[in-house]
Design a protein that fits this description.
260 residues, alpha/beta, Rossmann fold, 8 helices, binds nicotinamide-adenine-dinucleotide
Length: 260
């Protein structure tokens, strides 16, 4: 199957690093016009833009904090102006926050994780659906996490925000389905990116992590990006309201291979 997304207008939040960059590249390779947001490291955004330009792709980069609804609105208005709207939204921007047990964490840090992972995703989805519903087509894909399902000590805001993202996906899918718009989630397991560098760059941390992954390796951002392209394409035209887990078997709970 050769998936093509020519004429599709896509937006990827947090596109200048990790999984976001891989998704930007995969969408562009499939022929879509791709806008992406970045929050820090403008130089990384510029490198990605330059690569896309050299490949003859149509692309836009915008600096934006997704937890700021005014900034989010401006991103969509920029796409309206340039391309007349949007067909694909990838809510990828996210943060896990500092590790802290719930009785030790400070409220502003806890709240910030929610504001980015859940509120940010909602602001973007709401702006996207305002445009997709009247045009009777489009796909919203939220990059969730295995922690939508697996509890994670020290990261209660992260895990709870991703679980909430799962229900947001289901509810928005229910609202949008009669208008021909699909809403989906994609939940990665451990993917080698800057977000978890402290774990995979430490031999002990890596050993512990690999014990949790039946396929016995970290995933690559491209393995998430390939599936993202399939999910937003017509190859997945009958799929909505679900989060697809791409985790090397992590949610198969490998410890149970030894009894239970
Ligand atoms: P990353 O740190 O490389 O990327 C996160 C991106 O989000 C960055 O581009 C960052 O600038 C952006 N971002 C953070 N706060 C933002 C804000 N307020 N406004 C706008 N952008 C903001 O890490 P990644 O692994 O590529 O993460 C991408 C997504 O994948 C996240 O939602 C993360 O939760 C999810 N995820 C990652 C893994 C993994 O193992 N890497 C596993 C499960 C889920």
């Amino acid at each position: 199957m050769n998936i093509r997304l020519e004429w599709k207008r896509a937006l990827v939040t947090g596109g200048s690093s990790g999984i976001g960059t891989a998704i930007v590249r995969a969408l562009a390779d499939a022929g879509a016009k791709v806008a992406f947001t970045y929050r820090s490291h403008p130089e990384a955004a510029e490198v990605l833009m330059e690569t896309l330009r050299q490949e003859g792709r149509e692309a836009i980069s915008v600096e934006a904090d997704v937890s700021d609804p005014t900034a989010v609105k401006a991103v969509f208005e920029r796409m309206d102006l340039a391309w007349g709207g949007i067909d694909i939204l990838i809510n990828n921007a996210g943060m896990d926050g500092e590790r802290a047990l719930s009785w030790e964490t400070d409220l502003p840090s806890w709240r910030k994780v929610f504001e980015v992972n859940l509120f940010g995703a909602f602001y973007c989805a709401s702006e996207a659906l305002k445009r997709m519903v009247p045009q009777k087509g489009g796909v919203v894909l939220g990059i969730s996490s295995v922690h939508e399902e697996i509890a994670w000590s020290g990261y209660s805001a992260y895990a709870a925000s991703k679980a909430a993202l799962g229900m947001l996906t289901k509810t928005l899918a229910q609202e949008a389905a009669p208008h021909g718009v699909r809403v989906l989630g994609l939940a990665p397991g451990a993917i080698k990116t800057p977000i978890n560098r402290s774990v995979w760059s430490d031999p002990k941390g890596l050993e512990d992590l690999l014990r949790k992954i039946p396929l016995n390796r970290l995933g690559e951002p491209e393995e998430i990006a390939r599936l993202a392209v399939i999910l937003v394409s017509d190859a997945a035209s009958y799929l909505t309201g679900r989060t697809v887990f791409v985790d090397g078997g992590m949610t198969d709970y490998p410890d149970f291979a030894h009894g239970g």
